[in-house]
Amino acid sequence: MRFAETGINLEIDLSRGSIEKEGTDPGLTELHLGGLGTNARMLWDRVPPETKPFDPENLLIFSAGILAGTPAPGANRTIVSTFSPQTLLMAYSIMGGFWAPELKFAGYDKVVIRGRSPELVYLWIHNDKVEIRDASHLKGKGSLETAELIRQELKEPKAQVATIGLAGENRVYFASIEQGRSSASRGGIGAVMGDKGLKAIAVRGTKDINIAQPAEFFELCTEVLKYIQHRGENPIKGVPPILAGLGSPQEMSLHDEQWHTASFAWGNARERRKNFWNEEVEAKWKETQDKTVERLISCYNCPMKCGGIITHPKLERYMMKCYSKLTYTMAAMSDLDFGFRIAGLAQEYGVDGYTTPQVMAFAVELYEASILTDQDMPGFPADNEERFFYLLEKIVRREGIGDVLADGVYWAARKIGKGAEAYDHNTIKKHEQIPIKLGTLNPIYYLMWSTGEKINITQIEGQIPQAPFPTKEEREEFVKDWIQVPKEEIKDFVLNWGEPGTAFPNFPTPEATCELVEWQETMHYIDDATGICAGLSSFPIKPPYHIHNLPRLISSATGMDIDEAKLWQIARRNRTLIRAINVRRGMRRADEKPPEDHWKRRFPEIEAKLLDEYYKFKGWNNEGIPTKETLEELGLDYVSQDFEQRGVYKEKKAKAAKSTKSQKPATKRDSKK
Amino acid sequence: MKKVKVIKIDVDKCNGCRSCEAVCSAFHAAPKYSSTNPERSRIRVLFDPLKDIYVPVLAGEYTEAECNGRDIYTIDGKQYDECSFCRASCPSRDLFKDPDSDLPLKCDMCEEEPPLEEPLCVQWCLSDALTYEEREEEGEEEEKPEEMEIGLESLVKKHGLKTVKDSLARLAKG
User: Fold this and answer.
1) A311–B contact, CB cutoff 8 A
2) Mutate to test the interface with B, among A143, A178, A206 (most CBs of B within 10 A)
3) Most buried among A163, A229, A649, B86, by the most CB within 10 A?
4) What is the tens place of the pLDDT at every residue in A23-52?
5) Which residues in chain A have their CB less than 8 angstroms from residue B33's CB?
6) Class of domain A438-668
């Protein structure tokens, strides 16, 4: 018997219409755990670098994390992995909700999709019965609408449905996969699903998930729950409310948006509005939110309430999760009511709540700069909110200018030309980022923005406070119960930060910075394998899951014998393998940098040193390529052999640099600032 | 006097996480906590997010026949089917039946020795949609039938005593 995992993957070939059930190798679980780790292994083994994202040979993998569906609180994540049409690198996006547990209850760990169906189809998984079904009547339907229609036609109200909207069908490069209250949005994975002619995957399961050492595992789960309760009653002192608790930022319940509205940039990542938040705005936004958010909701087996049921007189009910509340609002320089209105529609079309507002704000700027004209955008409204609605409709249909914008800021800027490239100032590796433009280079964040394989800061950061505590007493108070640190020295960072001589960019030292980044990143890689939500683990400060309790949780659930060192090593192996996949697709040092204007004050020498130091720390060479020794130490000999065959290590630096697209410098507007 | 155990349900506080289902099924697994499967849970959250309906329901009695005619209740502007609140394991739905044997499931308030402070679903409901109460009522403590007895009884009702006896005899020989 297999424990925690089911040991069976579904292999679906949509070109041939074939469905196979494959037993998985327990040895791979030992090496990679599951979720993202085993997905990466599959992509390395089965998708050569010559395969393009929209080739039928590209795989689209839906994986439950190894603990998903067990009583471990918040273990409910589905990890979707493929190759991104936008970045051309490996894409992985992760969703909560109810889909992954249901897949496990149906008896499977992963659904592996290959090929391309000539007609639009959906997949119906009901325990042992698996069918590819016609979806022509669902063409163009919205995400919630599709899920509802499928449940009705199957007469299975308890089926969980992951689906694309119109944007995915039209292969918009930032199309999402939606699942009611959750979505896997980043990297254009919805476009790959659309390219495969797969509208949705519905799943219903009524089988058991087994636990190897039940009493111990359940006791550990209960401890986690108690700690969640403890943290609910004891928010972190001295940090903004939005950072004080657990979960994704509690956007649906909190009203105080001082931190986001002042720290993040508005419009096309342009304007910091440090004085935007005042009593008047707060009262107005509170009123909007109180009448719009009808109920706070959760994902499977999680007490955090990161989502909300949204009721708006102009919309059908929908479910929102955390930060999409503000992304549209701030990109359009508008207010909260607009945010709720457009997010509902955007979700129904199935687009990423981070990238989409950025693309639209970029288009508005191009129009204002007369780079895009009324000829490109006939009937473009004067009102900013209307403009966003206009652009959304064009993009999801790939109509007119929407066809260009649907490829995202990076590609659209290059297609439009006429200087549009200069307005692409918030992408990393061709992927739109959260609009953050700050003052002085932060060494920790510099490394995370530059080197994160997810190309998304929230999927690498976490655990550490964002600002120093003003007094020594507060610092000492903070570290007193900081049980989550992997080693005591980490506490020195918080204890010292705020003392004289601890200003960025010379603090922390490159060595200390590497340790901090490594810790934050490692915890994410563990979550992405276990399927535990980052909101209870790698993302917030002082989370209930950490490196000291996860090994016992994983061991007692799976029956494997994993200690801290071994778990750290698994995370390192998975992380290195994903790096290798991207290296094999041409990613090099030249690609690893935040936008020029991410900080006003940059320090090229310090940055180069940080990157050098970090690569060394990781066991990568100066181009960010894992060395032969590192790969062998991690049991990834097959990767180093492949690198040697392909001559990856012998590349001249110039050639490497040439193979990647360099980013344009900041716009004139920025250099004036 | 007899002790009555009650789980109070506040539908407004339910966040639809289904932790109650997860831990109920784990608690009642044999050996305890060895598996999880909401389908075996004796509490289910009946929900329809797009109508903002979230109703945790505890498994009650087995019933042979389904209701003739069901009413629709409107509460706070939301329409609920009568089944939304019904605790019965009944022929008209797949709720509260063991997925393998089809035998009815019934909430036992997590009774065990030593007793739990509160049933597990209540302990895991940090939203307080489920709360626990014990109160004294007039009357005698009644002997609770064993789980196996409940199952057998329902089989007898369904197939008749003779058929069940015959099947058991055959199985015993097997």
Assistant:
1) yes
2) A206
3) A163
4) 999 999 999 999 999 999 999 999 999 999
5) 71, 211, 214-215, 217-218
6) mainly alpha
